[in-house]
Amino acid sequence: MNSVTGIFLLLFMTMIAIGKHTLPKRNLDTPDKYCAEINESNVLVVMHQGKAIQDTVELNNGIRILKEGDLLLKNGTKHKLKPGQCVNKEGAIEKEDP
What we know:
With about 100 residues, the protein is an alpha+beta fold. It is about 20% helix and about 30% strand. The strands form 2 sheets. It has a 5-stranded antiparallel sheet, with no helix packed on it.
């Protein structure tokens, strides 16, 4: 590898490292939402009021939210949340607030 390529590679890696630490934090304190996030161990977790849920949560309408990010609907259908998706208190999936 020549020195120019090495310099560009070093700059690129530095920009990635800096970017990881300066990304804005998402608002995880929304009391009426359960949001899927990737934690520091690179595992999908469901956050509620700034904390990962530890047990299954059942909404008033019977929809259950599992700590691994699965939604179990009343009819037995299972849906996997993607990072950044949230479930409101009615059970509707929406994108997380920035």
